[in-house]
Amino acid sequence: MTDASTPLIVGASAPSEARPDADLLEGLNGPQREAVTYRGQALLIVAGAGSGKTSVLTRRIASLLRTREAYPSQILAITFTNKAAGEMRERVHQLIGQRADGMWISTFHSACVRILRREAQLFGFTKAFTIYDSGDSRALIKRLVKEHEGDAFGLTPAGTQSRISKLKNELADAESYARQANTSDPAERVFIEIFAAYQRELQRANAFDFDDLIAQTVYLFRAFPQVADVYRKRFRHILVDEYQDTNHAQYALIHELTRPPGSDAEPMSAGGMMIFEAEPAAESGASLTVVGDSDQSIYAFRGADIRNISEFERDYPGAKVVLLEQNYRSTQNILSAANAVISNNFDRKDKKLWTDVGAGDPIIGFTGYSQHDEAQFVADEIEALHRKGVDYAQMAVFYRTNSQSRALEEIFIRSAVPYKIMGGTKFYERAEIKDALAYLVAVANPADEMALRRILNKPRRGIGDVTETAIARYAAEHGITFRDALANSPQLGVGPKLQKAIDQLDAVLSEASALMLPASGELAPSTAVTEGLTLLLNKSGYFDALRASRDPQDEARLENLDELVAVTREFARNNPDGTIIDFLTEVALVADADDLDDASGSVSLMTLHTAKGLEYDAVFLTGVEEDLLPHRISAGEPGGPQEERRLFYVGITRARKRLHVSLAMTRAQFGEVTVAMPSRFLQEIPADLIDWRQSPGDVNGRGGTQSRALNARGRRPGQGGTSGSRYGDDLVPLPKRAPADPSKFPNRIPAKVRDNGDMELAAGDRIRHDDFGEGRVDAITGEGAKRVAHVRFDTVGAKKLLVKIAPISKL
DNA sequence: TCGACACTGTTTTTT
DNA sequence: ACAGTGTCGA
Questions:
Q1: Choosing from A6, A37, A41, A54, which is the catalytic residue?
Q2: Residue A742 has pLDDT above 60, yes or no
Q3: Is the Cβ–Cβ distance between A581 and A571 less than 8 Å?
Q4: Does the CB of A465 sit below 7 A from strand C?
Q5: Hey, which of A131, A242, A251, A699 has its CA 20 to 30 A from A526?
């Protein structure tokens, strides 16, 4: 990043006629136009769902550039995900018709990493620092909790981790927290010890966790004002998307960046970025634009503070506020439902979304007997829509928790609905991928002991607990790093076999270091990361161990590692000068929402959180049940139910034309079947907007009416924590075994994997299906394992079945 | 040191 | 249901 920039600003002197940005305003409504053209120190754009905020934001940036009010390098745009950043860069590029190099469009985290890599050596880190993801930090915290015997004081690793994370998001460190904590409580003292030890370990390992990336950047700016001034002078226009989801640390970071540069700053350089100081007197703080919608704030649980947006006008006096309420996405029925639901949240500024596209289709409701029944409804409905010409890629299924995806998947596979799960088990969280990355980290950042310990015995080298401790002790006694201790295997007091194993590991790491970290001055070739990774995996024996294994899962692991190698190649292509550190940074900061590559030809499955910012023609909101959509855990938390309602609202507003809400009367969790109740949120949707294909009343064993079933939620016992019935008196759970004819339960998924691989089927054949009964094959499509039978069943109509696994037999 | 087995708590959401 | 942990014997 060696872009030179001068902080000269042309005053707001756009020519009155034929504005150079006139074309950017085409097709915008009044408020949108104002949001693009307003010039001032602070602007808050309150953008309701679907009100075209991305368009406004990109046009605003394009307008600043087009009118020459700003150089690209003076713009810092912050988005929530890397994907959103990429999209924004692309759209700005399209608008201004040229590449805007030097613009920073990135997430909070990537922006902070860029700053920290430049400045880390100022406070005891090197630019090769590792980024610990939550898994890494949990592993470290787990070890520390054990060492400090935190369990004796009721401290769990997960609880400790989340407390530390919350504190860091509030910019509290161990010392400042200790000062105001109740130290007469022994558990509190232990917690503080662990917190402090955790921070020491991170520093020792030359590592930052996710929260540190933000917080340490703020500390950096506060401790070194002249460093902060470099960035304050550079970034003259700061734009923040999804402002309602910022936490206190992020708020403070923005606040630091928008302060006027101090007058005592010397001209200085930082990390190769030269800044020439021009008339310090003329310097004011950067102009700040934030975009947000407090009704879509769904990250309070991880520290997002809704006050950042609700008190924006107080924080930035004289701020202009623009309201975008016209919706360009959904039909009026969908918006009416959304408005009705969200109006149940008190303490919000009233805001009503409206559209001029008309009412549209009613919302479809469905109540299944079980989660599989519900999933079958979704699959059938998707197929029906697809036959009507709706592209699979224009449909999405949302759920509250990741675990709900399983039932949907099972049914989708059987019904041959092409789908793609966003999120779920993440590629970079798979053990073999983490192992491979740990090898790379061990090379890039030798101070990172965690990475080294992780790979010490992967693959099996016979290096167990005892040997690991011996190495650590030797390192401590001689004041050297864990990594350097490996080079002294003869002094470790271990057997010759182990010595040899240690020597070998040491040699592999050294060889890879020589390849990927060439002596200063020369640049590693762009292929270095790929070569280094393959070298590490080959010579460490990792590949061999997987290939020799008879575990069928290890084959998939090999494929995943091949995939990772492919990722390094792709990385080299996109970043010819990219180093191993750049690669590890990129990998550490990718989120799941980032690699949704349009899911071409597939239905998208994702959690409601992942769905934010996306839109689809048809949306299925599943599992709309008490204890799930308001989630049980949030019920007791202050503001919890309201945040859950916003989550529901976000889900509703993703739909353009068709919205489906569904639930199940029973749901299996923790291995046993429990009874589910309709969510309170369902009643908040005006009844005339929902067309129930099967209402909760229809499937109620006692034959209650729809409204009865929906309104039956009497006064619920406060927390549900007290033993006894968790239901109101007049709401009786369904009998354990529903009295209905078992054939009404097309939902038993055989645990065993069925394989009809060689079954011969042709159009005209009659078959019997375990759940759907008898039917006639209309057609067979696809090949091999993906052969699909299109069957017309006598009683349940047309279905598509994956021949290989469908529970069918030929008649 | 490592595999087999039993046992436990876990499922909220994520940069 | 299931993964992750702990205990035991080889």
A1: A54
A2: no
A3: no
A4: no
A5: A131
pLDDT in tens, A204-237: 889 999 999 999 999 999 999 999 999 998 999 9
**Å: A668 CA to C1 C1':** 9
Residue % of chain A over a pLDDT of 90: 26
What is the mean pLDDT of the segment spanning A64-86? Answer: 86
pLDDT(A653) > 90: yes
**pLDDT of the residue at A621:** 95
Chain C nucleotides near the protein (CB, 7 A): 1-2, 5
Predicted local distance difference test score (pLDDT) of residue A785 = 65
Measured between alpha carbons, how far is A286 from A288 in angstroms, rounded to an integer? 6
pLDDT at A25: 77
Spatial separation of the C-alpha atoms in residues A639 and A197, rounded to whole Å: 33
A671 strand C contact, CB < 7 Å: yes
**Could you tell me the CA-to-CA distances from A323 to A14, A195, A246, A390, A431 in Å, in that order?**
24, 43, 20, 33, 47
Q: Residue A53 catalytic?
A: yes
C-alpha A732: how far from chain center: 38
- Compute, in degrees rounded to 10, the torsion defined by CA atoms A745, A750, A755, A756: -20
Most confident of A135-139, A698-702, A723-727: A135-139
* Active site (annotated) includes residue A241: yes
CA-closest candidate to residue A587, choices A543, A538, A536, A533 = A533
Q: Evaluate if the CB of A762 falls below 7 Å from strand C.
A: no
| Rounded average pLDDT over A452-474 | 83
Residues written for chain A: 811
Catalytic residue flag (residue A242): yes
How confident is the model at residue A734, as a pLDDT? Answer: 32
Å between CA of A403 and C1' of C2: 11
Q: Which of A89, A234, A454, A654 is catalytic?
A: A654
Q: Quickly give A305 CA vs B12 C1' distance in Å.
A: 18
- Token pair of A409 as six digits: 């998947």
Task: Give, in Å, how far the C1' of B7 lies from the CA of A671.
Answer: 15
Task: With a cut of 60, say whether residue A200 has pLDDT above it.
Answer: yes
* Nucleotide B1 C1' to residue A467 CA (A): 11
C1' (B10) to CA (A563) span, angstroms: 30
pLDDT for res A268: 47
Give nearest nucleotide to A247 (CA–C1').
Answer: B15
Q: Is A296 part of the annotated catalytic residue set?
A: yes
Cβ-based contacts (< 7 Å) between A 530-569 and strand C: none
Q: In whole angstroms, give the CA distance from residue A735 to residue A53.
A: 49
Closest to A675 (Cα-Cα) out of A725, A719, A641: A725
Question: Nearest nucleotide by C1' from A668 CA?
Answer: C1
Return the higher-pLDDT residue of A659 and A758. Answer: A659
Whether residue A684 has pLDDT greater than 80: yes
CA A793 vs CA A369, A386, A775, A808: distances in Å: 21, 19, 4, 12
Average pLDDT over chain A, rounded to an integer: 81
User: Torsion angle, CA of A566/A424/A649/A42, rounded to 10 degrees?
Assistant: -40
